[in-house]
Amino acid sequence: MLKQKELPVVFVTFKSRVAATLAAEAQQHANPLLLTTEYAPEPSDVLWHNLDIPYRCMVIHRIGVIVAAFLLTVFFTIPVTAVQGIVQIEKIKKWFPPARAVQLIPGLNSILTGYLPSAILNGFIYLIPYAMLGMVSLEGLVSKSKKEMRACNMVFYFLVGNVFFLSVLSGSLLNQFGESFAHPKEIPTRLASAVTAQMQDVYEISYDTCGQYWPHIHHYIFIAVVLMQITMIGLFGLKSKPAASFATIPLLVFNIFFNEYCKSRFLPSFYHRPVQANDDLDDREGFDKDWCERAVMAYKPPWMCAVTSADESCSSIAPLLSC
After folding, report:
1. Where does the sequence pass through the membrane (predicted)?
2. Is the pTM of this model over 0.70?
3. Is 273 exposed, middle or buried (0-12, 13-18, 19+ CB in 10 A)?
């Protein structure tokens, strides 16, 4: 009976930091799907209800989340294209004469082309983080920080791929729809001439990841800078400024090389713990039995914590160290 209630996840404490580092970094089994080890999140960061999901099933869950996010991105093209169609009201009047009735109401044309598209698009975009967070919740991640970082990654790529490219290109396509059919070879040039650099919303997280989010921020900045530089190279070329266009190319190459250097020099420190530093800490501080006992108590699930009074709280939400 108890065998059926066992979870496929355990929290292990060690008497030294070096032993914990070696256990977390090494592959424990020839088949990585049967036994994996990683550093435990903070007690208050653990999603206890996801601990009963086997690791091999999490791969299937992740594929399902990726497919769902892709479908959301595809179907989001419908409102974006419709909103960009509202902006091109003059073209719509030519294609659909009854739309000229908006001129009968003073100020309605300005509202439709100036305020309404932005309000509709921002309304849809406002719902995207919640949708992504809901989908990531089904992935089975064991910590809140990983879940929200994964959702932020999905939102970032959604904004880059859907809001930036699709919003700009759909507006350009509607604006030059007829001319593109007459001159199909000029479609890339016409689309590039309408591209401008954009900045979208920044989503602020409300918890401390102890620096684990910095690689993601660095990656976001790198992608944004590369997109800006590629856009400027194309714009300078379209504006008949070849010198400025060629002068931007070294900046693009430098940024790519700088990103590769940062990935090789600093990125491993965010995912791996140095054995040398932990060994020095063990030699300097030694083994603290009280700290080990507090760690064991801290990682008890909430339903296993005995609460004797209203003032006492579960140790799984308390810090490991207290002053």
Report:
1. 63-87, 119-142, 154-174, 217-238
2. no
3. middle
Q: Is residue 93 part of a domain?
A: yes
pLDDT value, residue 313: 47
Q: So what's the pLDDT on residue 174? A: 44
Handedness of CA 20, 22, 24, 28 (dihedral sign): negative
Do the domain assignments include residue 142? Answer: yes
Query: Residue 143: helix, strand or coil by DSSP?
Result: strand
Structural domain contains residue 102: yes
- How far apart (Å, rounded) are the C-alpha atoms in residues 293 and 174? 66
* Contact by Cβ (8 Å): 299, 44: no
Q: Are 144 and 47 in contact (CB under 8 A)?
A: yes
DSSP element (H, E) containing 305: none
Q: Provide the domain limits for residue 123.
A: 48-182
Residue 48 — left, alpha, or beta (φ > 0 → left; ψ -120 to 50 → alpha)? Answer: alpha
Domain count, the chain: 1
DSSP 53: S
For residues 268 and 261, the answer to whether their CB atoms sit within 8 Å is no
Cα 169 to Cα 125: distance, rounded to the nearest angstrom: 18
Ranges of the chain whose pLDDT falls below 50: 1-2, 172-174, 176-178, 180-181, 187-188, 191, 194-196, 199-201, 309-313, 315-323
